[in-house]
Amino acid sequence: MMTGTQYLASLQDGRTVFLDGARVHDVTTDAGLGQSARIVARGYDALHRPGPDARNPVFTIPRTAEELRARCELLTKHDVTLSLSAVAMALLTSSTELTHADPAAGERIQHWFDDCATRDVRFAELITDAKGDRMLAPSQQDDPDLYVRVVDRDSTGVVIRGAKFHTTAGPIVHELVVLPTKRMKPGEEQYAIACAVPADTPGVIQITSSHHARHGHPRDKPISAKLAIPDSMVVFDDVHVPYERVFLDGDVARSAVIAHSLGLWERLSGVAHMAHLGDQLAGMAQLVAEANGTAGISHIKDKIADIVIYATMTHACLEAALANSEVGADGMLLPSELYTNAGKLHAANHYAVMVRHLHDIAGGTIATAPSFADLANPETGAFVEKYLRGAKGVSADERLALFHAIRNMTADEWGGREAVSWLQSGGGLFAQRTVTRNHYDMAHAKATARALMEPIDD
Ligand SMILES: Cc1cc2nc3c(=O)[nH]c(=O)nc-3n(C[C@H](O)[C@H](O)[C@H](O)COP(=O)(O)OP(=O)(O)OC[C@H]3O[C@@H](n4cnc5c(N)ncnc54)[C@H](O)[C@@H]3O)c2cc1C
User: Fold this and answer.
1) Is 63 domain-assigned?
2) Ligand 1 center to 263 CA (angstroms)
3) Which of 4, 15, 235, 247 could form a disulfide with 44 if both were Cys (CB 3.0 to 4.6 A apart)?
4) Are residues 217 and 283 in the same domain?
């Protein structure tokens, strides 16, 4: 297994990354991206075990309910790059079906997966295409490159062109896993491509963002400092991919199989994270109410109760998803589609309302609080200390910590990114609603409704 130091060294591979209009020659030393890389490096150190047989537990294929639960717990304790291993789970889950058209696909996936486990690498998921006009199919767009496609091939591999959007962690992982965003139609074979591309491959260009504060007092941004990972637009400017890294090539009938499977693993991780997030929102709401002296007011108690119920319902969906898991074709345990999707939809759908409650409870200082640097400044510190105090015994330092945490979590650049992410991640609300409906037992529901209409049998 890699240590954090080895992981950081592994990123110094000449990959092509741009940030804020300039080329980043070393992502580990950039002011923003370097902070993200160090978050991941700390995770590597926390998981590291010595010896040639040691293996990151995220590569364990869950075969029992305990292993599936352990996987969820592992993901919530670490940065998001570990959760992005969902893409490897999705490939494994899909491999049996992919071998119908390509008998060696399963072998290639397994070989790639084992190699990734041995090298202890991290993944990014590249599904979301540029898409152009959303109402037009890939082959109908005025530019054929608006969905990633194969533009050439030779005896050794394919050449791909196009761009994938919103690629979380792209600049600081090793494997960029490209999947078709949806089912392709006959005639769109060039778009039915799934493959794994090393991040330093020539022609791969990442235009990225960083959500880290690059100035200011470190206590002003306590959450992004621990969690913020960049998102990239990844351009494939005629990139050669050897066949051993190609998992789907022209099979339009099965082009959506991997994305569907990824949806399940992504949303399971989303439910697990959001259950945890619900607890954090509830805790933050209670703490700030106590600090402000408002914890006994009835409308504040009602709003905190709403957040508590939100967190509890999300936990309940996670439990139901695990309890109703099913064994897949290869013995891998798959969480329930119904409860996973309903849980993710519930959590994403109501997140904005819970944040509104938190903002309402906390008050406007979450937006306007002075910096910790102002508390430390001898010219202003005494004023901040005197006027930022809250309920009896609650210091300005304690309240500032709460206000900055809530701002960082929900109301600044990182908080805004998180709000959009919880809504859109795992394919967005529409996809989660559709999958939930498709897995709901409507025949049973209709039968129960009909039973209500039956006259009493005297
Ligand atoms: C912070 C963040 C991180 C992300 N990380 C990743 C990642 O790592 N990898 C990855 O691949 N993706 C990632 N995503 C992408 C995410 O899955 C997409 O944002 C989501 O699928 C929506 O796609 P879009 O952004 O292109 O919006 P659009 O497709 O433009 O959708 C916008 C709205 O239009 C609706 N819509 C669009 N087309 C249609 C249609 N034909 N019929 C009906 N409704 C339609 C959608 O349902 C939605 O309501 C991330 C997104 C965010 C915000």
Assistant:
1) no
2) 12
3) 4
4) no
Q: Does residue 425 have its Cβ closer than 6 Å to ligand 1?
A: yes
Residue 223: the pLDDT is 96
Residue 140 and residue 209 in one domain: yes
- Please tell me the distance from the alpha carbon of residue 263 to that of residue 430, in angstroms, as a whole number: 12
Are 249 and 318 within 8 A, CB to CB? no
DSSP string, 156-216: SEEEEEEEEEEEETGGG-SEEEE--SSPPPTT-GGG-EEEEEETT-TTEEEEE---S-SSS
What's the CA-to-centroid distance between 190 and ligand 1, angstroms? 22
CA 121 to centroid of ligand 1, rounded, Å: 26
For residue 274, tell me if it sits in a domain.
yes
Q: How far is CA 434 from CA 146, 185, 291, 430, 440, in A?
A: 25, 20, 42, 6, 10
Report how many domains make up the chain: 2
Lookup: tokens for 146: 């608006």
Determine whether 202 is exposed, middle or buried from the number of CB atoms within 10 Å of its CB (0-12, 13-18, 19+): exposed
Tens-digit pLDDT profile for residues 95-131: 989 998 899 999 999 999 999 999 999 999 999 999 9
Which residues span the domain enclosing 132?
4-54+121-251
Tell me which of 206, 222, 251 is where a domain ends. 251
Tell me the pLDDT band of 209, cut-offs 50, 70 and 90: very high
Distance in angstroms (rounded) separating the CA atoms of residues 99 and 199:
27
Q: Where are the beta strands (DSSP E) in 38-93?
A: none
Instruction: Return the CATH number at 197.
Output: 2.40.110.10
* All residues at 6 or more sequence positions from 292 whose CB lies less than 8 Å from its CB, including other chains: 361, 362, 363, 390, 391, 399
